[in-house]
Amino acid sequence: MTTVSETISSTQAELEKLVGDLRGLLASKDLDGIPEIKQLRQRLDDGIHSVRDSAVRAAQEAALQAKDAARAADRYAHDEPWRVAGAALAVGALVGFMLARR
Description:
102 residues; mainly alpha; 3 helices; DUF883_C; ribosome binding; cell membrane; transmembrane; DUF883_N
């Protein structure tokens, strides 16, 4: 099971690889004779910065929501320990029953 930070890291690594590939393609000396390439390079850089900022904000928001959910679950477990224990017992019994039927 991957964690949020592992997913963020792998996504960021893939994005960086894609950016590197695009920059390498656009940096080709064969393309320097085309006047639109300079504009395309600038738009690409602007887009990359925008996407990177959006990705960072989305990752931070997801991490914040996960922390809030964990805090809520922790509060509930402390406020209602018998309900949590009963639910865990029920899930354990169900899993045990399912495994025993195999």
